[in-house]
């Protein structure tokens, strides 16, 4: 990042190569729409490029870029008024994946490792409130530490932990069939 | 095992389950053309920001040229001002020294004079009822009029007039205005003396000219 701030364009390319996939994964789990997710991540890198002078090395670069991506994702959610339920068109947004409609006859034994299971989990993630979803994704999917999540979200450590617990509890209720496997 | 330990283990169990479930999700990756689209997007934004300058300052922050330009402008203005002062022959230290003292105009005397004039004008004005009323009623309202007693003329009874006779009355009337007559006489006297002095001067001028001839 320091070399990028000094004008090394190759350093920016390295940053993009390193962070594009983790950011796409994080934003997709948060938004639930692939096209929107790619757009948000691209905008994140544009912001990083334009505001590179504002970055101070006292903070971790990953924390800074996750903060930008998270804020843009929240703005996107507000702008498009995405509600907690997911429509079928949004679920179809992941390219190369055919989605079957889950029904009540679904049993976790039949397809625990299938794509359907992933979609159910994603649906459950989008069903929980936004404030819990963000921290749960950062903790359980992106595998960041509590301190990093605290810096990214701007919340205290205690608030982060309690939100993670509440989010997990809500997920457990939504995914009780899978949880009980 | 205490309740606290049970809580921790149950929390740890939930965490493990949640991590296993969510961590086992397929990793979503960026599309292959992500970087190409990003470059395109950056180029568009840069063109929007720096199009007016006609260059691609991809790696030069905008702040640096702006600060540099402002510093150069300030220094240039200072140098120009310095040389302009040198040309006029006035050094900057002289220019700032308080040699050229400009006395502030003192209006004290003129104000006093004006006040005295105003006071005399007020005194000269006759203190008539109309003037007072105009002061009290400045908006053109009709002032209340006060009927003053007219100057009483001396009414001479007809019997007395006859006894005295018309000539005696005229003489009495003439004797009643002695001052104006005196003044007139004085003016006439001074006019006469002026005429005499003019005549004597003319004669004095004529005499040397005759002597010269």
Structural class of chain B: mainly alpha
Give helix % range of chain A: 55-70%
Number of helices of chain B: 9
- The amount of helix of chain B comes to 55-70%
CATH topology type of the largest domain in chain A: Arc Repressor Mutant, subunit A
Q: What structural class do you assign from the helix and strand content of chain A? A: mainly alpha
What is the level 1 CATH name of the largest domain in chain A?
Answer: Mainly Alpha
Please report the distance between the alpha carbons of the first and last residues of chain B.
160 Å
Structural write-up:
The complex is a heterodimer of chains A (181) and B (213). Chain A is mainly α. Chain A contains 10 helices and no strands. The mean pLDDT of chain A is 80. Chain B has 213 residues and is mainly α. Chain B has 9 helices and no strands. Chain B has helices at residues 3-23, 34-50, 63-87, 92-96, 108-124, 129-136, 158-164, 166-175, 178-212. The relative contact order of chain B is 0.02. Classes of the chains: A mainly alpha (181), B mainly alpha (213). The interface between A and B is large, with 43 and 28 residues.
